[in-house]
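Morning!

This is the sequence you dropped in the shared folder:
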Amino acid sequence: MTGSVRRLLTEVAPQDEAFRAQWANLFASDVFWPGLTHEALSGYVRKYEVEWPLRVLACLRELTETGTYDPTLARFRDARRRLKKGVVVDYLLGGFTAYPGLRQALRLAYSPKLRNLIGHNEYVMEHDAVRAIDGTFAQTGTEVWQRTQALMAVQNALVWLESTAGREPAVLAPCGVLSVGWMPLDADDVPHLVVMQLAAFRRYSPSAAWLDAAVVHVTADRAETKLGAARVRGGRLEPTLVGVLAQLRNTQRLRCEVVSVAPCLHAPGLTHRAYDFPWGRFCETDEPTAVREVPVRVIDGAARDPHES
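The structure's back. C-alpha cells below.
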C-alpha cells in the first residue's frame, strides 16, 4: 500500500494548469464570508466545481478499498473525456466508511442539491435562508457557511498534502510566514518584531529554531525582512520605522515573537483577535508564542530572494 500511495502522489496529486486556473478564480472576489448573498452562493459553486480535489479523492477511495486505482478515471468520463463531476461526487459520498471523519467532512462539504439549485438558478433567498423554488430543499445562511467551511478544509488539506509530501521537517519549518509586523521600541530599546506563521508549519518547530538570524534590506520607500530561511516579507517604509531601523543598526539585535495563525473560521461578528491578509482572514491558535532574540543586519538595497517570483 505504501508504494501505491507514493505512486498516487506522483501520478494524481501534482497540480495541473486547469487546477491553478480554477483555484485562482476562487480569489477573484472577497474571500471572506459576506453573509448569505448571491455572490456567496456563487462562490460555493465555484469552489465545488474545482476538479483536481475530486480526482485525488476518487483515486484515494479506490486505493483504500481495492489496493489500486485508475489515474485516468476513465469510468468517470463522458464521450469527450470530460470528468462527470456529479458522478464523482456521488462516488465520494458513498465511500470512506473506514474513515468516518473524512466521510463526514465530504458529506458536509459537497451538497449536490445545493450546487444544482444555485447552478441552475432555481432558488430563492429570504430571511437569511436559501430554498428551492419548488420548496423541496432549504438551507439557512449558517448551514451554507458550514458547508463552505468544510469544502475549504477538505480542499486546503489536499493542497497542503501535495505541497509538502516528501519534504523534510527542517525544510518545512521556516515556511508559511504570512506577515511580519514591527512594534514600537521596548523600554530596553531592543527592536521587536511579530511574525505570523501558519500553524501547520509552526508545529514543525515549536521553538522556531529556524529563526537564527535576520537581515533587513532598506530602500528609499520599502523595508524587506529576511528571517532565517523564510521568504522575504516587506512593505512600505513608514515614518515610524525610521527610528526602529536606526536602533537596529546600533544594537544589531532583534527580538522576534513567532505567533501561530490559521484561517479564521469563527462566526461573522464574533469578537476575537483576527488579521486580514491578501489571502484571507486569519486568527491566532492556542500554540504558545515562541520568543527569539537574534542577530540582525541592516543593508541598503532590496533583498534578492530566489523563492519570490
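Headline: The two ends are 37 Å apart (CA to CA).

More detail when I'm at my desk.
O.
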